Amino acid sequence: MRALVVTHEKTSRPGFVGDRLAERGVDLAVHVMVPDNTRPADFCPLPAEDFEVLVVTGSYWSVYEDAIEPWIGAELDLIRRSHERGTPVLGICFGGQALAAALGGSVDRSPETEIGWYRISPPDGVDLPISTGPWMEWHHDRFHLPDGAELLASTDICPQLFRMGRSVGTQFHPEINVELASEWLWAASDDYLESVGVVREKILAAVKRNEAANRRNCFDLVDWFLDDVAQS
Fold first, then answer.
1. Is residue 100 situated within a structural domain?
2. Among the four residues 34, 171, 179, 230, which has the most C-beta atoms within 10 Å?
3. What Å distances lie between residue 167 and 35, 59, 78, 112, 113, CA to CA?
C-alpha cells in the first residue's frame, strides 16, 4: 500500500503517524507544499494521484488564509476527489480542517486557542474508538462538520475527531514527539509565544512526559484508521 503524505512546511512531518504507517507496511511518499515558510505562495505542485491512502498534516497557516490561495484550492480538490473515489483520507489539525472544508463543512477562528495537552470526550451514545488522551493541541482555528459526518469527540472548545465514510479528521496532533515539538517551539517567535501564553520549556517538558503514552495512543489511532475505517 502506498500513502501520499501532504505536508505544508518542513516541520509538519507525520511523526508517529508516519512511523506506524511504515511499521504496518505502508510506503510513504511525503510531499512538502511550501519549502520556504517565508514565501507561502511559492509551492510545489501536487504529485500524480498514484496512492491508496492520503494523509494531510498540520500547518502554520489557516485554510481560509489569503497567503495560501495559490495552492489550497488544488489541495482541497485532491482531498475531495480522494474521498469520493473511496481512498482513505486522514487529516491532522490543518489537515482535518481541510478535510472538513473539502467535504462541504467550514473552518473559522476558534473561540479559544488550545495549546497543550487536552482530553477529548465523545458525544452521548458514541463509542470512542481511540483513547481520550490527553492529546497534544496547537491550533487557533476549528472545523465545522460537513453534512453526513459523524462527530466522535470534542473538547469544551471545539470538535476534535470526526469520520465521514473512509475519511477521518482530527483537530489534535497525534503525530507529536519531542523532535517535532522542539522544532515548532523554536521556530515560533518570542512575541507570538508570549501572546498565546506559551513558555517553550514548559510545553517541551509536557511533551517529554507524554511522549511514550502518545506514541501508544497514536499507533492505536492509526491501527483503527487502517483496520476499521480504511477497510469499511
1. yes
2. 171
3. 27, 19, 13, 26, 25
Alpha-carbon distance of 18 to 204, in angstroms, equals 21
Is 93 catalytic? The answer is yes
Instruction: Say what the pLDDT of residue 49 is.
Output: 87
Please report, for the domain that includes residue 154, its CATH number: 3.40.50.880
Contact at 8 Å (CB) between 3 and 55?
yes
Q: Which domain holds residue 146?
A: 2-177+213-229
* Alpha-carbon span 75 to 110, nearest angstrom: 22
- Which tens digit of pLDDT belongs to each residue from 188-226? 999 999 999 999 999 999 999 999 999 999 999 999 999
Catalytic residue (choose from 139, 158, 175, 218): 175
Q: Is the pLDDT of residue 117 over 90?
A: yes
129 domain residue, yes or no: yes
- Please name which of 45, 33, 49, 46 lies closest in space to residue 81, comparing C-alpha atoms: 49
